């Protein structure tokens, strides 16, 4: 109260100006007398100390013993340094960008998991998003009838909300709201992480627009992007889901709050992993520039026209998802039928592709902090997500394995599955970027598998951080 009364009559600059000058002098002194390697090492150790002290300072809970938190922390190191070991240009890795991105991701998770304000805020956003997208139900009821909508089929649960969300996004884009929000967020990421404008715009747009639509925001810039930028754009798409499919997962019984948190955490995480794997070695045309270029040939006349164009895009995306699920599930069941037939001769009961590859993901499931008794199931779900898609994996999580996983395992699995990192999405992303830059289709295709792995690593890193803070 005394300080408030004093500063009502005395300007705060009396204190803030000397304080700012002191910080600048100290930082310049440290910068002049220490090498980049020493400064980066000290920064990394400081962040490590902050994370370790925070994680182990919280009291133990039955579902979150300190040993499990330690395993998740170890998993974070494995994912980060494993990616560094596989880096294309290890000498060019900008560790300040990587460390800052991981710190941002950790602080966001801390805000959600261990702050009542953060928990309530994201729960409110989740409830708002669910309630808003549920309005699509009334349109679907009018078209298909109440009985059909209440039949709880996948198509009528997911696709109306997807089409409605696509229309909403197109309307907001016409009004300029999307561009304004994304530009402000991109400026923050440029300043904090030191990445290019094109990368920042796509990274912050990915949780809202999705893996294919995000690249359309920088359509004129795609032909001149560096290889590192293309890799980052692909990784951002693989590392998150889009708002258009959010309601579909929530309708299956997946935690909306966990999905939203994972989507936001994926923004800095995808940057960290991608810049470890494929650091920048070229000069970007969009360095320090967060302007969003306009669409070429955009002829939207008014809001109704924008809603119609959004609905058209939503229908295309819905049909694409529908076709992918039908073809992938058909191929998956055909392969599983052959493996089961083969397993009968080898006395292996129910031999399937998910069973075989699921065991390969058991170490990953352990590193993200899943309980020991659930490792095989979590590994199978992660394998299913890679081979087919996250829709099928979440369906199995909430249906086939309902009640079989502990609350801890279910939460970290929700984070680990929250991304478009699957082989079906590779074709879609390569197709979109290849259409925008036909001369660079070969480069994009060569970077796609690396970006797919980095997108998966990003979701696993988010899961391990969630495992530390549950």
Automatic annotation (TrEMBL):
Q: Which UniProt keywords apply?
A: Cell membrane, Membrane, Transmembrane, Transmembrane helix
Q: Which GO terms describe its cellular component?
A: plasma membrane
The membrane topology noted for this protein in its Swiss-Prot or TrEMBL record is:
Multi-pass membrane protein
Task: Give the Concentrative nucleoside transporter C-terminal domain ranges.
Answer: 259-467
From the record, give the transmembrane residue ranges.
40-58, 70-88, 95-113, 187-210, 319-339, 351-370, 412-436, 448-469
Annotated GO MF terms: nucleoside transmembrane transporter activity; symporter activity
Name the family: Belongs to the concentrative nucleoside transporter (CNT) (TC 2.A.41) family.
The identity of this protein, by name, is: Concentrative nucleoside transporter C-terminal domain-containing protein
Q: Which organism does this sequence originate in?
A: Mucor lusitanicus CBS 277.49
């Amino acid at each position: 109260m005394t300080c408030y009364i004093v500063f009502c009559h005395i300007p705060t600059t009396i204190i803030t100006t000397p304080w700012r000058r002191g910080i600048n002098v100290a930082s310049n002194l440290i910068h002049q007398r220490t090498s980049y390697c020493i400064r980066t090492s000290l920064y990394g150790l400081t962040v490590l100390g902050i994370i370790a002290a925070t994680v182990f300072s919280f009291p133990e809970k039955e579902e979150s013993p300190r040993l499990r938190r330690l395993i998740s922390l170890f998993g974070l190191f494995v994912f980060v340094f494993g990616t560094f070991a596989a880096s294309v240009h290890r000498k060019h890795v900008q560790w300040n960008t990587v460390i800052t991105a991981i710190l941002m991701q950790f602080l966001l998770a801390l805000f959600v998991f261990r702050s009542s304000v953060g928990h309530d805020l994201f729960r409110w956003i989740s409830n708002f998003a669910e309630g808003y997208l549920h309005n699509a139900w009334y349109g679907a009821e009018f078209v298909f009838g109440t009985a059909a909508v209440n039949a709880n089929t996948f198509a009528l649960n997911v696709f109306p909300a997807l089409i409605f969300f696509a229309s909403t996004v197109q309307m907001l884009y016409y009004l300029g709201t999307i561009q304004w929000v994304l530009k402000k967020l991109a400026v923050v990421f440029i300043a904090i992480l030191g990445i290019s404008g094109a990368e920042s715009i796509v990274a912050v747009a990915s949780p809202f627009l999705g893996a294919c639509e995000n690249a359309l925001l920088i359509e004129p810039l795609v032909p001149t992007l560096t290889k590192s930028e293309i890799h980052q754009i692909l990784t951002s798409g693989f590392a998150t889901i889009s708002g258009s499919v959010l309601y579909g997962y929530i309708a299956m019984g997946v935690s909306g709050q966990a999905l939203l948190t994972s989507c936001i955490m994926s923004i800095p995480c995808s940057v960290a992993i991608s810049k470890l794997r494929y650091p920048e070695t070229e000069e970007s045309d969009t360095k320090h520039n967060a302007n969003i270029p306009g669409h070429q040939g955009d002829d939207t006349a008014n809001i109704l026209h924008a809603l119609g164009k959004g609905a058209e895009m939503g229908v295309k995306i819905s049909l694409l998802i529908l076709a992918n699920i039908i073809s992938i599930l058909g191929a998956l069941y055909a392969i599983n039928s052959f493996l089961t037939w083969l397993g009968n001769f080898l006395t292996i009961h129910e031999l399937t592709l998910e069973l075989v590859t699921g065991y390969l993901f058991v170490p990953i499931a352990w590193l993200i902090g899943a309980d020991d008794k659930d490792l095989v199931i979590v590994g199978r779900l992660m394998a299913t997500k890679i081979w087919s898609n996250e829709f099928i994996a979440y369906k199995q999580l909430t249906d086939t394995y309902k009640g079989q996983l502990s609350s801890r395992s279910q939460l970290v699995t929700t984070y680990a599955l929250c991304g478009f990192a699957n082989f079906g999405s590779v074709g879609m992303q390569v197709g979109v970027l290849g259409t925008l830059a036909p001369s660079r289709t070969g480069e994009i295709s060569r970077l796609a598998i690396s970006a797919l792995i980095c997108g998966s690593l990003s979701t696993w890193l988010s899961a391990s951080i969630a495992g530390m803070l549950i």
